[in-house]
Amino acid sequence: MKRNRTYLARLGALVLAAAMLTGCAGQPGGSTEGTAGITADVKTGAGTAQGENLPVDESGNPDPLGRYQEPVSLKIAQTVNPTIPFPEGQTATDNAFFDYLKEAMNIEVEVMWQAGSADDYNEKLNLAISSGELPDLFSVDGPQLKMLMASGMLEDITESYEIYASDRVKMAIDSTEGKAMEAVSYDGAMMALPNVKAMKDGYDLLWIRQDWLEELGLEVPKTIDEIRTTAKSFIDHQMGGDKTIGLLSPSSGSSLYANFLKSSAVMCGLGGIFQANRAFPGYWIKDENGETVYGSLTQETKETLQILADMYQEGTLDPELGTRKDADEAWKSGRAGMFFGPWWVGYNLKDALANDPGADWQAYPYPLTEDGKWSAHMMNPSDTFCVIRKGYGHPEILILMNNYYQRDAAKVDTMGVDLGLLPARLLLNIAKQKESDAEILKKYLETDTVPDYDKDEHNLMQNDLDTVKGAKLEPYDDYGIENWNIEDTNFPRLYSILVGVGAIDKGYETGCEETYSDLYWQTDSMQRKWSNLQKLEDEMFLKMILGTVSIDEFDQFAADWESQGGADITKEVREAVHK
């Protein structure tokens, strides 16, 4: 609070100075010399000066949802997909978002430069960094942030955050249990505003055709062995035709599992099999001695590759592993019986139901470990950041804008412009809710009474409560597809919550073992060597599963990985973790 008192004292002095100057100017013979750029608001008594034009309330106190009294110029950089449509008369540099920022906050946005893709953006940003000609506000990834912080090119936003961040913004960042703040801190200062992703996006859930299970009289498979048995039964009985797929694999070019750089759940990936064997390829994890090691080199990973190779050989794993063009098409067309995916699969369910109205896809926190635990890799809660260039006079502008975006989420969502073009917009979800959306909705459906819930933490819940009975049919405790109104507009979201998030809740009831990566960003050596190491890993693991390379070659792969730069990278990771 010391910074806050200092700030208020500085602001109060400006108000007093403005009042004195205004009084002198109103007297006969009074001098106005030196008053340029200083004004007094007669109604509120709040004063501003060049460099001190700050959003305050009527009492002159900092206002997280205030408006600048004088226009503030803001130069930004943006990525604009050339195929994005715009409402008539609007463009990437003149649109409803820019009008909103002007009207609501008195911010005048100027686009300093544009990029047509993420790669183009990074190239132009690197040039801007080299030349020192940075936009006032821009977005960066983890490695870029580390470099900019170390080079002293960013403005410290610690004080701005303490004073201006709204309760909702702080709630989101605090929900990461310090991980988001750790990512943006340098020498004790906050140098960026991080995004916060919902941790539920990282869980690998087993999605399975419940109607197939019931037709065959099978129980839901809870272990790897039971998944293999179930997949074989699906195939033997041709539940999806003569080309039935037991366990589906990801599309060609996709990862087989999440990694420390891309830690969200991989659609149709195989992470669920690895995690049930307590293997975490792609993650930096602790070994039995407490030392950080690369998860792709562990004995557990080797053993899991053998399991997957056996599944491929016996036909229970997708026969088109590594060559499948479109994994989504395979399950939507009714040929696949199981796949691993995130909680939000319900958003894509209507295509599957159009092909087969009886396709009853249900989600489960399986397979379990040998001792009955649900083992889950945990995603990086913060991997995108917005920063202010060193020397820009309004570092609080970044905080202010995101305060407004949180309050006006529904409003900006209906402006007709792609949300990716909203300047400085960060996803600020609650990383881990104390009570899930599914739990609240289930209580309501069970009791017909709205339960108490945190409205800031669940900012979309009111609409969910208002609409759930239009999508979910009775009996309310049976989530089979026949008990849903699939034509309801809110069906995809509510199905995803009650079935997908509900499965995550069940996993925690069973007992969830959370595994975070010790590191979620690239070290210096990774910048030069990681792409080749990743290619080596991807190619060797796929070949081992397909059987074109023996699992016995795993130790040689590990040796090659270390000799080609992995050993140096591991040393850097350990140093970074121990800092």
Tell me what you see in this structure.
The protein is an alpha+beta fold. It has four domains: 1-63; 64-197 and 380-432, Periplasmic binding protein-like II (D-Maltodextrin-Binding Protein, domain 2), CATH 3.40.190; 202-379 and 514-578, 3-Layer(aba) Sandwich (D-Maltodextrin-Binding Protein, domain 2); 437-510, no CATH class. Helix content is 41%, strand content 12%. It contains 20 helices and 17 strands. The protein has helices at 2-25, 96-105, 118-131, 142-151, 158-164, 167-174, 179-183, 210-216, 224-236, 271-276, 299-314, 327-332, 349-355, 396-407, 409-413, 437-447, 461-471, 491-510, 524-546, 554-578, and strands spanning 39-40, 47-48, 72-79, 107-115, 137-141, 185-186, 189-190, 193-194, 205-209, 245-247, 284-286, 292-294, 336-341, 361-364, 374-378, 384-388, 512-516. The protein has a four-stranded mixed sheet with strand order 10-13-9-14. The chain has a three-stranded antiparallel sheet with strand order 5-16-8. Strands 1-2 form a two-stranded antiparallel sheet. A hairpin with a 5-residue loop joins strand 11 and strand 12. Helix 16 crosses helix 18 (491-510). The longest helix has 25 residues, at 554-578.
